Amino acid sequence: MDAKGNPVFCTIIPPHVLDKLAGADDAARYERARRTLEHDALQRTRRRMTTVRGVAAAAPRPGPADQPRRTIYDAKHHETLPGRKVRGEGDKPTKDATVNRAYAGLGATFELYLKAYGRHSIDGSGLPLDATVHYGHEYGNAFWDGERMVFGDGDGDLFLDFTIPVDVVGHELTHGVTQYSANLEYYGQSGALNESMSDVFGSLVKQYQLGQTADQADWLIGAGLLAEAVSGVALRSMKAPGTAYDDDVLGKDPQPATMADYVRTSSDNGGVHINSGIPNHAFYLVAQEIGGHAWEKAGQIWYDVLTGGDLAADAEFADFARLTAAAATTRYGGDGAEREAVLKAWSQVGVPTG
């Protein structure tokens, strides 16, 4: 649970997309969206009823802390977790590509956090990484439930297998990093920061895996997830929020890039998946301005703030912006190009740092 007692249940497909699909004329699409929405609402309720602590205590972990401990389970299209174990740490690849992608995605995320930031798994203490694949029937989502990653297979019509984009894995596991560190409340601007942290580090997982510099990266979240019939390239764009998709069925990407277009809404926990476009774009601008590998300096600044202990659970964009400027100063100096890049980026998206 977050600091206000909200259940930790974070999905990659935003509710506003599923709401749009639930109004579709196509009966099959409507039914799939309705089932997914009902499932997600039920999971949130279960988390609220069964989770009675804030940040979970780290589980004991045998073995070296600088190696992941991954376990992949197969739900076999049911909704009972975790399912049957199909691959453990060090096991050979299976014949199931979905299982192997989930295993690789957990490893890629573990590696970024360890190699770039010296963090041992998502809790910082070597927490085992569990994931369940083939969850539900045509389940069109993936989620972090506070304990594990869960992947649906998609419907093949609008969404493909949710293990395909490695940044989806990185995104969801970063919700765990946030849960164990800043524990940002999942509502309003703090909730949008929560979502943005997952997009930032999910993108960095992909960039690290591909060895890309900031100018080489596509800055898309979920590229490869949308089926061929969808008019779009991804779920979100950090480079150009609001341009990831524009589809007759899914609707148009609603993310703003600056505070001038900030969306005030009571849905989606106060627009956490929508207004996250603003801090997302700020990070993109910082990374571009600094250049090189984005996980090295821009990512380090963001990581310092996320895990430094000064980020309040109810932080707003301006609080986070101020802390990133301070973190850049502490790590790279008050006259450094890194601090100037941070100040410039937040100014461009309309968030004050003073």
Description:
The structure is a single chain. The chain has 354 residues and is an alpha+beta fold. The chain folds into two domains: 10-180, Elastase, domain 1; 188-348, Neutral Protease Domain 2 (Neutral Protease, domain 2). It is built from ten helices and ten strands. It has helices spanning 15-22, 27-50, 97-117, 166-180, 188-210, 268-271, 277-290, 298-307, 317-332, 337-348, and strands at 10-11, 70-74, 84-88, 129-133, 142-144, 149-151, 220-221, 236-237, 246-247, 251-252. The protein has a six-stranded mixed sheet with strand order 1-5-6-4-2-3, covered by helices on one side. The longest helix is centred in the N-terminal third of the chain and has 24 residues, at 27-50. The model is unreliable at 1-7 and 45-59 (pLDDT under 50).
